[in-house]
Amino acid sequence: MEQTNSDLKPNDARTDDWTARLHRATRATREDWLGRGISYLCIGVIILVVASMLWFITSKGIATFTQNHVNLWKFISGTNWSPNQGQIGALPMIVGSFAVTFAAAIVATPFAVGTAIFMTEIAPNKGRKFLQPVIELLVGIPSVVYGFIGLAVVVPFMRHLVGGSGFGIISATFVLFVMVLPTITTMTVDSLRAVPRFYKEASLALGATRWQTVSRVILRAATPGILTAIIFGMARAFGEALAVQMVIGNAAIMPKNLISPAATLTSQLTTGIGDTIDGTLPSNALWSLALILLLMSLFFNALVRLIAKRGQLSHER
Amino acid sequence: MNKGTKLAMGIAAMSLLLVGCGKATSSTSSSKSSSNEALSGKVTAVGSTALQPLAAKAGSQFTAKNSKVNLTVQGGGSGTGLSQVQSGAVSLGDSDIFAEEKAGIKASELTDHKVAVVGMGPVVNKDAGVKNLKMSQLKGIFTGKITNWKMVGGKDQKIVIINRAQGSGTRATFENAVLKGASAVKSQEQDSNGAVQKIVATTPGAVSYLAFSYFTNKLQALSVDNVTPTDNNVETNKWKIWSYEHMYTKGKPDKATAAFLSYMTSKDVQNSLVKDMGYISIHDMKVSKDAKGTITQN
Amino acid sequence: MNAKQKDFLATITINVIVAAVVGILFFLLAYILISGLPHVSWSFLTGTTDSFSGAGGIGVQLFNSFYLLVLTMLISIPISLGAGIYLAEYAKDNWRTHLIRSAIEVLSSLPSVVVGLFGFLLFVVKFKIGFSVISGAIALTFFNLPLLTRNIEESLSAVPRNQREAGLSLGMSKWKTEIGIILPVALPGIVTGVVLSAGRVFGEAAALIYTAGQSAPVTNFADWNPMDAASPLNPLRPAETLAVHIWKVNTEGLANNAAQLSAAASAVLIIAVLLFNLGARVLGNYLYRRVTASK
Where would you find the membrane-spanning parts of this chain (chain B) (predicted)? Predict the structure, then answer.
């Protein structure tokens, strides 16, 4: 195309044709500008979406404190959640959310990492052909199905096992464990596969056993990736609403133990949002819960970034 | 490699086209609603999940007769219905409660259309061993003073309260009739009839409350003060726990909406569909209730 | 205990863990399929739903799910491809890139119910598009974008450096190298990521309840003009998907066989996702062979 362009410009004949050609951007450069433009545009769209959502949730979430003049500290430390009576203490939900998320991640991680090692190091063929499709399939099970299986199977099981009504943190943990397992496993598999092949070969060539190679070389090298996988799993657990809501009992009271009904931020949000009027205290209070969800995920992200940085430093990768 | 770029551009063009199509259709549908020929237009009803099945069924019968009308019925909860109709986003706001009862809603701006009556009653798990309660006992259970079924003549079984979500219409109706201002003990909360139904059926000692249409033989529906939860008892107000199903409009409804409302309250619908689906016809009511809960004989 | 014994013990432990995981997974699948499949029939798959009880077939919902998935992918794949290329190729290692990455991770960890409510307030209420396929597709795009972008970036970065250098040394632009050399090599990984996110999109309910809506008006499957109100392709009609249908039947369904209906719908959903996964895998391999011209 630039050939025809230059041919169409007779003025160029006055100046040194070659200088002009050399100064003009080449086809590759212009292609690169185009590429840059497209990719900048795309990232710009994402940034715009994130920014508008952040603004949206923040502006709605802080209305509780700016318009309804609720004391921030009372909101975080209060234990009485009755928005219709003007009492909004969010601590029970904060504790509930943290409890189920961490419990689910702690239970799921060994299973996920074990499975991932099996899929990449012990039986890569079986892993690729058989385990991976099944695990990917599980990601597609809607959370509401998990919730009802939880209600039909896990809750009665827990009732017989530990007593009580069966609703509570332990049931929610179990359901979430199954739900985050595919997420953590697939991402861990990805990060294990991303470990350069020669790391493994070097270790095996030095006479290390498979377990020594896995535990001291591959897992170490993949640690940032695995941590990201866990965080992603925790994010899913944290944000999961429909399934948890079915099995946790959804009671806005401080959880006394693992088998008493409790509530999470998301379960309270889904239960309540349809019955509130936009702009009133009950509605604003729920958006404040959403804001807490947001801040917590920011915190998690900062944490994983810190860990990843440390991992990089100690490995100087 | 031009394939990739072409593909990307094609996809981008297609999505633009789709958005374009979207705009085009929206403008045609709005121009349709202003024409005066056969009844046409767009009616959106949003809100109460308790009214949703009836509204949806009546809506599909209505559109079968008026094929030019585009009618959609959505759930979302009474609060959503009221705030959406107030903001003018939808034509009908479905609600289980009077707009006056909901803080943040300017009831004077809205017009109430009562389209059905719903009776609600306490249900317990079959293992509780209770079939009748006094109103005071029911209140005692939900305020947390009575914690074991043997205190009200049932088995030695801990009571597990399943409440409805705070602010839900069903809960407001129940608390108005039973608790009368006392506040409920903190307990499990569920936001749908289906979930309550399942949980009460499977959890020993569970108690909750449901609209009559959700009573099943897996649950034990309770009598209160020896009055059985039947439609006839609601019509005479012998059974106290009931509420209207409202469809609110903002100002004067447009033609299609008005036609749908008069269809909903017509004898046809009230005597067949409403009853078939477990609601109570507004024409059968021998009493009426206002927003403050005052009962007057018709 | 010496290294060999440790190795043996570790292998045993991992095998036990995998057996447990496989056991759980198969219990889940078997539970869904066994309780659901007996109730699946041709009329169930193609029939229309009775809006009163929720009983009846799921034909419209099934179509809606696929249509919504296609629309979502049409919007989100180009955007996340561009964004993934930006992160893999153009982004410098500085605070701005860190900020962008954090933003993407935050977006991915937002609960889908919050995304749904955001979509509801923005598209349904503010832009007055109403409960519609397009509102739902955009809401799904929001939470699909971070997953896809991340996956594409990782797949691109995993391509060996020398391939990139080879392209550049031939005088190709960065963009052309990326599109012509790196992307085809990374394609199988990208396709897997798309499949994974498609699975999540397919099963998503919370984000759609308030955007695509919970009603499935009967559509005229003979009318394929996207401008007509009754056409299944009209992006402005409300569209209840299969996952939302399962949720609705479970929570508000009045049909006395609600449990069987939702089990059957769940089984159909799982099978659809399975077929989808297999199809995409075949497609991914095929693409890989075609674009890289390898045997």
Answer: none
Domain assignment present for C28? no
Flag if B4 and C75 touch (Cβ within 8 Å): no
Residues of chain B in contact with residue A151, where contact means CB-CB under 8 angstroms, are: 198-199, 202
In a domain, B177, yes or no: yes
pLDDT given at position A116: 92
Range of the domain at B151: 119-236
**Is residue C12, in this structure, part of any structural domain at all?**
no
Residue of A39, A133, A298 with shortest CB distance to C85: A39
Band (pLDDT 50/70/90 cuts) for residue A274 is confident
Residue B11 lies in a domain: no
What whole-number distance in Å separates Cα of residue B53 and Cα of residue C255?
11
pLDDT in tens, C170-212: 888 888 888 888 888 888 788 878 877 887 788 888 888 878 7
Q: What's the complex ipTM?
A: 0.78
Chain A residues closer than 8 Å to B79 by CB: 274-277, 283
B174/B281 same-domain check: no
Q: Are residues B114 and B127 in the same domain?
A: no
Cβ neighbours of residue C26 under 8 Å, at least 6 residues apart? none
Q: Mind listing the pLDDT tens digit for each residue in C24-34?
A: 888 888 888 89
* Cβ-based contacts of B206 with chain A (< 8 Å): 165
Q: B227 with B251, same domain?
A: no
Number of structural domains (chain C) is 1
Quote the pLDDT of residue B12.
47
The answer to whether position C34 is within a domain reads no
- Going through chain B in order, the beta strands assigned E by DSSP cover 41-47, 69-76, 92-95, 110-124, 132-133, 160-164, 188-190, 206-211, 220-221, 223-224, 242-250, 287-289, 295-297
Q: Measured between CA atoms, how close is C51 to chain B, in angstroms?
A: 6
Tokens coding B81: 């219905």
- To test the contact with chain C by mutation, choose from A26, A34, A40, A46 the residue with the greatest count of C C-beta atoms within 10 A, namely A46
CA-based nearest residue to C188, from C273, C274, C285, C275: C285
Q: How many domains does chain B have?
A: 2
Tell me: the pLDDT tens digits for A235-244?
Answer: 888 888 778 8
Tell me the whole-structure pTM to 2 decimals.
Answer: 0.79
- Mean pLDDT confidence for A146-172: 84
Inside any domain, residue B6? no
* DSSP code of residue C48: P
**More confident: A297 or B231:** B231
CATH code of residue B286: 3.40.190.10
Specify the CATH number for the domain of residue C262: 1.10.3720.10
Nearest to C199 among A53, A136, A143 (CB): A136
Return the residue of C nearest to B11 by Cα. C74
Cβ of B186 within 8 Å of Cβ of A251? The answer is yes
- Last-in-domain residue among B236, B254, B278: B236
Average predicted confidence (pLDDT) for chain B: 81
Burial class (CB in 10 A: 0-12, 13-18, 19+), C168: middle
- Confidence band, pLDDT 50/70/90 cuts, at residue C62: confident
Q: Band the pLDDT of B89: cuts 50, 70, 90.
A: confident
B195 domain-assigned: yes
**What are B169's two structure tokens?**
């219409």
Q: What residues of B are in contact with residue C218 (Cβ under 8 Å)?
A: 60
pLDDT digits 0-9 by tens, A66-76: 888 888 888 88
Q: Name chain A's partners: 3 or more CB pairs within 8 A.
A: B, C
Touching B (3+ Cβ pairs <8 A), the chains are A, C
Cβ pair A175, A244 in contact under 8 A: yes
Question: Which CATH fold would you assign to the domain A72-316?
Answer: MetI-like fold (1.10.3720)
Count chain B–chain C contacts defined by CB atoms under 8 A. Answer: 112
Query: Can you list the alpha helix ranges (DSSP code H) found in B212-297?
Result: 231-235, 255-264, 267-268, 274-276
- Residues of the domain holding C57: 40-292
The answer to whether the CB of C243 falls within 8 A of the CB of A144 is: yes
